[in-house]
What does this fold into?
Amino acid sequence: MAGKVEERKKKLREALIDAAEAQIETGGLATLKARKLAQVAGCSVGAIYNVFDDLDALVMAVNARTFRRLGSFVSAQVAAQTDDGPNAQMITMSHAYLRFAVEHTFLWRALFDLEMSVDGAVPDWYLQELGAVFALIAAPLARLFPDMDARARDLMVRALFSSVHGIVLLGLEKRISAVPQDQIEIMLTQLLGQIGN
Amino acid sequence: MAGKVEERKKKLREALIDAAEAQIETGGLATLKARKLAQVAGCSVGAIYNVFDDLDALVMAVNARTFRRLGSFVSAQVAAQTDDGPNAQMITMSHAYLRFAVEHTFLWRALFDLEMSVDGAVPDWYLQELGAVFALIAAPLARLFPDMDARARDLMVRALFSSVHGIVLLGLEKRISAVPQDQIEIMLTQLLGQIGN
DNA sequence: TTATTTATTGAACGTGGTTCAAGGCGAGGT
DNA sequence: ACCTCGCCTTGAACCACGTTCAATAAATAA
It folds into this structure.
């Protein structure tokens, strides 16, 4: 009867991530509470700490899921698009990013709200997923600037990603722009349409 | 002897804002605690709540100061620059924004970290300051796109501000880019140098 | 089965924002 | 000068929350 513990632990781990994800999705990161979580996942408060170092570690696990979902969503949108040139491709990606942020606002927010607090120790999966996203952007950019050296292009990839992120972030922030989604799309289109022309 | 209460209240208000600002500047928003604050400002914990509704309101007061400082810093940098055209002007503004964020990281962060939580009720001073910043950007943009209608230009102003913000935000985030300050400047220069060409 | 090790529990601890009943103090009237 | 009224101030107490830990239960080994 060996391995019963491992199995239960894995089950609990999944249950906790599911419960945390559901809570973040509906109420946001701030509404995630240890006691409520234990109740939903069907365990004691203390049990959480047998599986995760602390709640931040649990949120990181949720973020890992979210990040993968985001990456494959953007990829899928790009793949489903007929190739109308590098600018159109980048615009498609940015619109996909926006749509994900709109449809999963709290989960998307948690990606950035949590990591800010955790200094040092960037997990491996994080850099991997980020690298995948950057690679997606790098492809059309290489077509636009074939003579640009890799270092400069890498910098431009980050700049563009950050720009899109900023536009989506502040665009969804009621108190700053109060801009409806289609206006945000126009902003993204305008910005990315200008690149390389 | 009329107005003694008002006077003391005003003094306490200033003392509290000063103490809160100092704490945020050195330790970040998360290290701001009511008890410590009362101790530094020389009052009881309860007294804070006679002057401010809650700690968020106090942080808002700090943010008002920070926002004004940010605005005048960017203005000053632009004014101190010989006019090398609209792109150069926007680049100067973005570099000033970056420099402010680097030199007052915690205060700058508090501008965005707090407001996110406070829904509704955007204070008047906030929109005013934001409008001033947007007006700064609108000037060079009007020179670049003289035939663009006001609505589209307004959208572009927001898009550019958001882009710069995004580049600075993620650029200062160790876990995402770990990009040194001069690299961030290059990103900003590249992006804004492309606009309108 | 019994012993030993490991997991689980939930009450308790520490921290921190916010409240409130009790006492203090300024302003106006006498 | 004194009294009175109402606001200010105080800090102990309240509540919510993350995290811990001694006690309990369960699983593995002998």
User: Anything to note?
Assistant: The mean pLDDT of chain A is 91. Chain A is about 80% helix and 0% strand.
